[in-house]
Amino acid sequence: MKNLLIIVPNLGIGGQELVAVNTAAILKDRYNITMATFSKEEPGFTPDCKLIDLDIPPLPGGINKACNVYRRALELKKLKKALNIDMTLSVGST
Questions:
Q1: Count of CB atoms within 10 A of residue 5's CB?
Q2: End-to-end distance of the chain based on CA atoms, in angstroms?
């Protein structure tokens, strides 16, 4: 079975979060699914898969945002390598 990583900024109550959780539920019989989030916002949804919080929440200011993009990309690269991810699906503005 192939390994799928679904990336969503957080699991708060919203449309993109619901899409991510529903996608995981639909694909769970065909893929080993891991969901990654960037912040521990109060969860509105609970996915039926492995959940990893990278704990890189959004920060104000242009320089901080640029640094976050780099940190998130680096952490996702490490995660994908560690979990031997075959495919990645990003939901929302990550």
A1: 22
A2: 26
